[in-house]
Amino acid sequence: MKITSAFPIIVTEKLTESSSFYEKLGFVAVFAGDWYIQLVWPDCMEVQIGLMQPDHPTQPPLFQGRTMGEGSIFGISVDNAKSAAEELRAKGFEFALELRDEPWGQRHFTLLDPNGVRIDIASQEAEMSDEYAKDFLMPVESIPA
Question: How far is the CA of 118 from the CAs of 57, 67, 76, 97, 102, in angstroms?
Fold first, then answer.
């Protein structure tokens, strides 16, 4: 199996509001139907997100339930979390979790989308404690940013 992309699909009654949120974040809609919207990151087309209305008759019952934000995290890796936080704050985003450094070497902050999905934006650039460094199964410098 060769994977070419991977993306979450958020099933929501807030299709327009959710699309606007992700477009403000920087995603671009490449398909916008009345019940499904596909968005991609313009500089990296493999980074995508789908938005779908619940209970749509074209979808099997398995796909018709609504996404519950609690417990859903959409992780986005960036090269510099501090500059990303500054950029998004300037665009008017409110942070659910302020920019912070973690002992496992991650610098990150978190937004909430209109559905309560946590958007965790992170970079691997903070100081890593020895406690966490020993648990990495590959060299830290090869961890994707």
Answer: 28, 12, 10, 10, 17
**Predicted TM-score of the model (pTM):** 0.85
Strand order of the β-sheet with 118-128 is: 73-77, 118-128, 104-112, 97-101
Per-residue confidence (pLDDT) for residue 62, from 0 to 100: 79
Q: What is the pLDDT of residues 9-66, one digit of tens each?
A: 999 999 999 999 999 999 999 999 999 999 999 999 999 999 999 988 888 787 777 7
Q: How many helices, marked H, and strands, marked E, lie in the chain?
A: 3, 8
E-only strand ranges, the chain? 9-11, 28-32, 36-41, 44-52, 73-77, 97-101, 104-112, 118-128
Q: Is 98 left (phi over 0), alpha (psi -120 to 50) or beta?
A: beta
Which residues have C-beta within 8 Å of that of residue 103, sequence separation ≥ 6? 128, 129, 131, 132
